[in-house]
Structures
1.
Amino acid sequence: MAALEDPTEEALMFFGVTLSGLLRDHPDLIEVIAHDVAETPKLTEVMSWVMEDEAIDPSVWARIESLSEPSK
């Protein structure tokens, strides 16, 4: 979690690319990730770095997009 206190762009990109691969292969993880984002709003920034990938299920991609938007 230390990387989330003051993340560099490189750290955010690493986390985003890692999540892209995980969600491509394990789309059910989006529920766990959504819970984590709700608990730790700072993760919204990480979600904005997840790269769009045609292999990610469209419904999962829609969740990624919604999780990458700051709460109002």
2.
Amino acid sequence: MRMLARILCGATLALTVVSPLAAQPMTIDQFKDELVGVPLCGTPGTGALEGKALCVVHLPDGTVIVAGGGILTRGVWEADGDKVCRRGKEDPLERRRCVTYEKTANGYKNSDGVEACIGPCAK
């Protein structure tokens, strides 16, 4: 489960986009309308999965799937205000990783700075 937590955390870092404009974070309702059930893909710039193309799918039932870079793993996600929080299924709540998302000109970014698009994404 620790590996799952690291993968989910790395995937969170991987799926963040940085915008030169001060964009507003998406509300959780916007996140659910636009990004639940679709692959959100990006390449982390740091962490254990640095440089690996990954896609994360947040499913309506509260599960999350991370695939790419030679891995396929599942966890859980939940909303905390306008934050999206992920963790391994067996991990305690304090192990969850929370980020916000915002729209950018090229797709989306999360508060960790990872750029992402609804995948698969063109390079």
